[in-house]
Each structure stands twice: as structure tokens, then as C-alpha cells.
Amino acid sequence: xxxxxxxxxxxxxxxxxxxxxxxxxxxxxxxxxxxxxxxxxxxxxxxxxxxxxxxxxxxxxxxxxxxxxxxxxxxxxxxxxxxxxxxxxxxxxxxxx
Length: 97
Fold this sequence. Notes:
Blueprint: H1 2-20, H2 31-50, H3 58-96
Helix pairs in contact: 1-2, 1-3, 2-3
């Protein structure tokens, strides 16, 4: 049950950062919530099964939600940069033909 909670909270973190960070017109509306939810769920399961942390412990929540936060910020910062560069290269290629 806690895995569901951490995934939903992670998606909410991604949704909030979707509207806080700039250049959101370069990616879809559900990308950041999906990336954040996936990161939170993966870290949660890795800590629960791999390191045998307790599901009601503080550090498993902190690590999982921090992973969601960092994944959504990294995606929102890196993706628009590479998308803009790719679009510029593609525009030059199409203009040359």
C-alpha cells in the first residue's frame, strides 16, 4: 500500500515541477509526473527489498521522494536543452534540402 502512496506523491511532485520550471512547452504534460513516479517507485522497491529498510521508516520516504524531485528537475532541465539543439539542427537540415 505504501508503494502506491509514494508513487502518487512522486507523481504530484513531478506535476508541481512541471508548472514551476520554465520551457515546459518542449515536452508533454505527463512526462515529469511519470518520470518522478517511476523514480520514486524504483528507489522505494530497491530500498525495501535490497537494503531491507522498513516501509514505515523515515529514510525510505526521504530517499524515494528525493529521487522523484531530482529526476523531475533533471528531466525538466536537460530535455529542453537537447530538444532545442535537435530542433535547430533539424531545421538547418530541412532548409538545406
